[in-house]
Amino acid sequence: MKDVQLDVNGQQLTKHTNEYLQLGSTKYVRFRILSTDPDWCLQRIIAVFTYKDLEVACPIMNNTVLLPDEFSECRIFKMHIVMVNGNTKIKTNKILFEQR
Predict the structure, then answer these.
(1) Quick one: the chain helix, strand, coil %, rounded to 5?
(2) DSSP character at residue 21
(3) Which of 4, 16, 63, 83 is deepest in the core (most CB within 10 A)?
(4) Which of 46, 45, 55 is nearest to 77 (CA)?
């Protein structure tokens, strides 16, 4: 299992490292989302993965989310985080990931 650490500060999402991910592996990449902002800690948060026209939203449970199987063969994909509070949605910036 490959852990990728991400930080959320306000609406800014950042990666800890820029290393490549393993292409073609399912259930291999786990994203760990860290935030000291209490607004993000107490709300429902969703990770949104995108590649061209493909978009998959996954709930973040216990500050972790697995890369969806649909993206295991994508050489590049983007991810952002959405905080949902009632009708309000707050989005972070998108981060680009590369798999080799």
Answers:
(1) 5, 55, 35
(2) B
(3) 83
(4) 55
